[in-house]
Amino acid sequence: MDYVSALVPPVVMAVLFIGVIVTMVKSQGGANKAKEDAVVDATLARAEQTRQAGQDRPVS
Asked: CA–CA separation, 25 vs 56, rounded Å?
């Protein structure tokens, strides 16, 4: 019975890992894709503005 207790944790972890991967694949695209892309684009634009604003200041 030691082999059962040795195999249970890896099997449980494998099942959970597969569940996470399946969930990630299923959530790609769909109705929220445009919304998620817009959030990423806005964040990147804000970061670019911050970077450019930092370059405009003279170095003292």
From this structure: 42
Other CB atoms within a 10 A radius of the CB of residue 36 amount to: 13
pLDDT tens for 5-27 read 999 999 999 999 999 999 988 87
Domain edges within the chain = 2-55
pLDDT of residue 56: 67
> Distance between the two ends of the chain, CA-based, in angstroms?
72
Question: Using CA atoms, how far apart are residues 12 and 7, in angstroms rounded to an integer?
Answer: 9
- In the chain, the amino acid numbered 7 is L
Q: Report the 3 state secondary structure along the chain.
A: CHHHHHHHHHHHHHHHHHHHHHHHHHCCCCCCHHHHHHHHHHHHHHHHHHHHHHHHCCCC
Q: pTM higher than 0.85, yes or no? A: no
